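Lab manual, section 2.4: Encoding a predicted structure.

Procedure: take the sequence of the chain (160 residues), apply the prediction step described in section 2.3, and record the output as structure tokens. A sample record is shown.
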Amino acid sequence: MEDLGKYVFYVIINNGEDNGYAYGVVKNKKYEHQSYLETLIGIEPYFFENVDIGYYWNKTIESFVKMGNITFVNSSISLNDIDNNLYLLYLPSNPSLYQLNMLESFLPQLELMNIDVGVYGELEEAFKEIRISNDFNSFEYLKEYIFKNKSEIESKRYIK
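Recorded output:
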């Protein structure tokens, strides 16, 4: 299993299948996200063809996630102590089963990290209403997100 803490960007691609792949950019001595984003785009430029690439890396990632890709970001790349880092998990509205299984396999790592989640795409507004709750827990929401989406995918399979 990959060590998510060593990445600045880690992407789980949505190819609409039960299988897929992921790739990432490992943290080095640079302290600005934009250079890591350029490296990420260079790995597989095809995935960014229809993405609104802007000066602000987070807006580019939001656009990328709206297309169905899960992206994990180390928001505190200048810090070396993993306990002080905040990791952002950008979630699409309609993930694939492969993506959900990958996320589920990362739960033991994510439980030990300081994470924040966001949902982008068609369910973004509904998520924002949930997010403003005083008792919002990112990790619990992530587990619920995985369970709910896996259940929906599996129920669609039985309908066919």
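Check your result against the sample. The chain has a mean pLDDT of 90.
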